[in-house]
């Protein structure tokens, strides 16, 4: 595309004012998410790739919510409010009012058409400029045109007009070429014709599509470009279309990473947000979700049955059957299976978080292991530590949370409870079943289990007639008989 200049510039207008009633949602349609971003966010990203001179987003329904989301994605965008006059034509008209001296080209996009890519839009703008048309619209040929505006051509095959579904005759409705809702207009011609567009239709709206017919009446050139892939033009009007758009976007994303050197064993069950980053030689196993701003380094293996949200995974790490959010997993570390990493988890290089372990706000040092059946929260663990099975940090006293600090090379016995706040010194050891309520000095052995006391005959006396009592009686009788036999032999 040619370099933007004052008289050869591009302005992008994104329509995001609709209510989207078919979504049946309190959330505005354009804010529903696929691939880690709201629908309108995908449109904004593609628009920015074109390096336009201006990007304007027209809002109305749930104005503040949509505007905040738009500015969160692109702070440089100009948010334009549509007034009480309904229709896409009016939406574009109020946007143009914010560009009074603009004489370049205007690319009009819909905030609910998220799959259009840079190549397709760049080719559309280039075709428009090469053909010196007053307007160029994108069309698509579909099997079922229901719900879309129909492109009506003249006897010579040129674009004559666009008829909305609700205003179409039976013959017009049978047309399979649809308006994809993407246009490039010469700004001056667009302004002139929008001033002439009325609301004489069944919906009482000011249609942008009426501009096409008016341009033709003035003998101005109107061109059409058929989309290279009809799926690119998919608009989202209900939850079924939202799911389909998400599936198509995910397939595109998965394929992109495969071509970048990532092994994805089962693309059909792998979901990767467009905001995630994967290095070459990553392996992704089935039923895995890599979401939001997750970054996975080279050689890591993720999955199966794993969800990573805003996580960092180091080189050569392995994460299996794990649910992790806002966690950092170091190089060559191993996580899972069946681990739950909550926000604030940091596992250093070579560390391990094993089976049925939950962590939160926990820093686990280099080479340290929490192998199984543990809860580690609000904890700092040094390097070379091994926590026995069933380790629990009791971090909450019903009022506040407290930290546990475990030094380097600490080894704990099975089924330990660390009652925070508590500090375990470097090289210390704790016995099995210990409840650690006081600080343990470096190199000390901490024991807190009372001596074992056996109450003979308790089951038979307190649970008579039970299977346990009968078994105990038989065992005692057998032992007594054995003792008698040994005495006789002696």
* CATH secondary-structure class of the largest domain: Alpha Beta
What structural category characterises the helix and strand content? alpha/beta
Our estimate of the beta-strand percent is 25-35%
Number of strands: 36
C-alpha termini separation: 107 Å
Number of helices: 10
How many distinct domains? Answer: 2
Q: Biggest β-sheet, characterized?
A: 19 strands, parallel
Morphology: elongated
Identify the CATH architecture of the largest domain.
Alpha-Beta Complex
In round numbers, the mean pLDDT is 95
Provide the gyration radius in Å: 34 Å
Query: Considering DSSP H and I runs of 4 or more, what fraction of the residues is helical?
Result: 10-25%
CATH topology name of the largest domain: Spore Coat Polysaccharide Biosynthesis Protein SpsA, Chain A
**CATH homologous superfamily label of the largest domain:** Spore Coat Polysaccharide Biosynthesis Protein SpsA, Chain A
**Unreliable parts:** 1-7
Description:
This protein has 490 residues and is an alpha/beta fold. The chain has two domains: 7-232, Spore Coat Polysaccharide Biosynthesis Protein SpsA, Chain A (Alpha-Beta Complex), CATH 3.90.550; 262-446, UDP N-Acetylglucosamine Acyltransferase, domain 1, CATH 2.160.10. The protein is 23% helix and 29% strand. It contains ten helices and 36 strands. The strands form six sheets. It has a 19-stranded parallel β-sheet that branches. Strands 5-4-1-6-10-7-11 form a seven-stranded mixed β-sheet, sandwiched between helices. A hairpin with a 5-residue loop joins strand 8 and strand 9. Helix 6 (187-194) crosses helix 7.
């Amino acid at each position: 595309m040619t370099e933007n200049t004052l008289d050869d510039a591009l302005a992008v207008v994104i329509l995001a004012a609709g209510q989207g009633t078919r979504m049946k949602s309190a959330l505005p349609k354009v804010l529903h998410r696929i691939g880690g971003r709201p629908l309108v966010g995908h449109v904004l990203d593609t628009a920015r790739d074109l390096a336009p001179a201006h990007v304007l987003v027209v809002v109305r329904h749930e104005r503040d919510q949509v505007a905040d989301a738009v500015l969160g994605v692109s702070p440089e965008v100009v948010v334009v409010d549509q007034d009480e006059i309904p229709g896409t034509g009016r939406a574009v008209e109020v946007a143009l009012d914010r560009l009074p001296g603009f004489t370049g080209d205007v690319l009009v996009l819909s905030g609910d058409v998220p799959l259009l890519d840079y190549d397709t839009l760049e080719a559309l703008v280039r075709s428009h400029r090469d053909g010196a048309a007053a307007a160029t619209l994108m069309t698509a040929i579909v099997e079922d045109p229901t719900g879309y505006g129909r492109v009506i051509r003249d006897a010579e095959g040129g674009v004559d007009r666009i008829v909305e579904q609700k205003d179409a005759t039976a013959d017009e409705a049978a047309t399979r070429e649809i308006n994809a809702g993407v246009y490039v207009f010469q700004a001056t011609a667009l302004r002139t014709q929008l001033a002439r567009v009325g609301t004489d239709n069944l919906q009482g709206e000011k249609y942008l599509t009426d501009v096409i017919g008016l341009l033709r009446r003035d003998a101005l050139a109107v061109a059409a470009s058929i989309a290279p892939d009809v799926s690119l033009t998919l608009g989202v009007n209900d939850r079924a279309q939202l799911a389909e758009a998400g599936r198509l976007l995910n397939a595109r994303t998965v394929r992109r990473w495969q071509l970048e050197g990532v092994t994805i064993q089962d693309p059909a069950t792998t979901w990767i947000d467009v905001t995630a980053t994967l290095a070459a030689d990553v392996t992704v196993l089935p039923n895995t979700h890599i979401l939001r701003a997750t970054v996975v380094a080279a050689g890591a293996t993720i999955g199966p049955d794993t969800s990573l949200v805003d996580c960092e995974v180091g080189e050569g790490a392995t994460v299996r059957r794990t649910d992790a959010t806002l966690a950092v997993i170091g190089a060559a570390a191993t996580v899972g299976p069946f681990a739950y990493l909550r926000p604030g988890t940091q596992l250093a290089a070579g560390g391990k978080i094993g089976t049925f372990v939950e962590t939160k706000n926990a820093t686990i040092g280099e080479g340290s292991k929490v192998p199984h059946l543990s809860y580690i929260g609000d904890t700092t663990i040094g390097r070379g530590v091994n926590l026995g099975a069933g380790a629990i940090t009791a971090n909450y006293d019903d009022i506040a949370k407290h930290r546990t600090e475990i030094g380097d090379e600490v080894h704990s016995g099975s089924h330990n409870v660390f009652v925070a706040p508590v500090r375990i010194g470097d090289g210390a050891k704790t016995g099995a079943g210990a409840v650690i309520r006081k600080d343990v000095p470096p190199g000390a052995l901490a024991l807190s289990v009372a001596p074992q006391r056996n109450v003979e005959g308790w089951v038979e006396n307190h649970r008579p007639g039970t299977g346990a009592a009968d078994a105990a009686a038989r065992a005692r009788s057998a032992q007594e008989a054995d003792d008698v036999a040994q005495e006789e032999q002696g």
